[in-house]
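Table 4 source record.
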Amino acid sequence: MGMKGKVALGAVVGVVVIGVVSANAGDNGDGGTSGGTGKDSSASAEREAGGNEGTKDTEDTKDTKDTDKAAVAEKKAAFAGDGDFQVGSDIKPGTYRTTGNSDGMCYWERAKDASGEMDSLLANDNVTGTSYVTVKATDKLFKSSDCNDWEAVDEKAKGSPAARMSGDGGMFAVGADIAPGTYKSTGNTDDSCYWERTKDAEHGIESILANDNVNGTAVVRLSSSDAYFKTTGCKDWKKTG
């Protein structure tokens, strides 16, 4: 698409460089979407009793499960990882996730128009691993290049949050992917470790609650009110409190 060559938007909070080329990563399961079917107790009872009606209901139940599985799969892949998508017609406003990306080749961009000029950029990023992005109703275009498929996620979803995370794991949803608390990363060198606490997935300067470039040991406390935690180039994080 020719857009992935752009460097992600930069910002400064204090003396810390924000997201010059933020790499988002992490493989934390499918916390954003859910689906599946429960057991059909009446069909099971009729199957145990025998008879044609029981058989018919069992077949119907199987067909229903197959249909539900297909619907879940379709819902999970909201749109492809390559292409330009018009907000409102091609894709709906909402929060989306792409995961399993490698080598920082995945590039996405929120834009206020389709001019392709730098002034049209609202937010963008180069991604390794996982990225969450909130597309707003006022956005006009969402661009994605060399990313894995995007799936719609529920911002309020809760999962089974972990107490450890990869230091190059990228973007984690607090309360769903990782638990709130104090985390430590040790052995970082050359200020290559970058972390960021955010209040949303819009990726604007105003989204950032705190951030740092770290040499040596990093200690960060994630609040239950934080929405996401981004980490790139760091040693693995472990919850200490």
